[in-house]
Write a structure and sequence with these properties.
Layout lengths: L7 H12 L8 H28 L4 H26 L1 H17 L3 H33 L4 H8 L24 H45 L10 H56 L4 H43 L4 H14 L6 E2 L3 E2 L2 H21 L1
Antiparallel strand pairs: 1-2
Helix pairs in contact: 1-5, 1-7, 2-3, 2-7, 3-7, 3-8, 3-9, 4-8, 5-7, 7-8, 7-9, 8-9, 8-10, 8-11, 9-10, 9-11
Keywords: Cell membrane, Membrane, Olfaction, Receptor, Sensory transduction, Transducer, Transmembrane, Transmembrane helix
Membrane topology: Multi-pass membrane protein
GO molecular function, one term: olfactory receptor activity
Length: 388
Amino acid sequence: MDNIFDYSCYRFTKHSLQCIGHWPFQSRRDKIFLRCLTFFLISTILIPKIIKLIESLNDLDMVVECLPIIGCYIVGMIKFFNWIIMEDHMKQLLLTIKRNWEDLNVESELEVLHQYSDQSRRLNIAYTTCCYSVLLFYFCSPAVPKILDIIKPLNGSRPRIPLYHTEFFIDQDKYYVHLLIHAYLTVPVGLSYAVFFDNLFATLIHHACGMIEILKLRLEALHIKNTTQGPIKFEIVMNRIRTSSDLQTEIFKFIEKLEAAYSFALLIIVAVNMILIITAGVAAVVKMSHPNEMIRVTIVNMCALTHLFWSSWLGHNLIVHSEHIFLSTLSKWYLSPSPLQSILIPIMVRSMKPCRLTAGKLYTMSMESFGAMVKTIMSFMTVLNSMR
């Protein structure tokens, strides 16, 4: 089963999901152990953070500072439970990828699918590297006071800066190092859920785009203008059209499964991201007098914005590719005799409306929706800042 996913273009995604116990073809024991472990680690930081938020409800600035971090962990937990609930859907999607690779026997089509899969791998590696690089920069913020004490010493030591505020009901100064180490161990786990969820999402979308490109090439290679050469040639073209129609149906079913597996989770994630960006933006304004803390909050803001952009861009990529099906069919349709025109019409009709991925049918994953969302976010930030 795993031979296809041991290829270089899928290996990174496979090993990433195995690390957190969400590769569908792992042993049941490994999945349960890794899921329980990662859930426990995330809970040990999320619960104290929520307690701190509840204790600080009368302090608007502290609430605004706590919400972005809590939102990040909520996004991770949403993806955690979505994977568990939708595991069968994920498994079916991966099995479809395996079957597509096995069914293709034309070298040029295999090359197209490999090209899209490899592009997905490179984008996933770049996205993961970027996210963890930002996390590393975020981890360095508690060291700033120590560095400043060396570069520009004061009469006394500068106050320590926690990675973020939590409530463990212990002396925060006495156990500062212990709490910092705990944060360093748990924060990457929450980020891993967010990043690896997006990596699989990108892998599945790129596979769909690759199959659409193969369908496009098949439609463009029908050579309908030569169908008058005889019944044998006519029958060959008829078979090619039927094969293309079957492939179109299979692609649409794949995208429907992808929508079913991700739609509800994306709805909550988009909503949380919107709240994250707004609160982090307000928090950045609140912390303007403390540059170090302002930079940290700004990083959270940019990460949430990038996360929303990434998901929207992937969905937009699918829309653009699906539009090619209609254009490829139309480009040859007028050259064909009447019997073939009638067979091509269903392909054209089904492809007139581009394939779209949505967040709960309320937000279309596209760059147009992303632009509208950013405008809405800026309006909310302006209102909240004026209320302070």
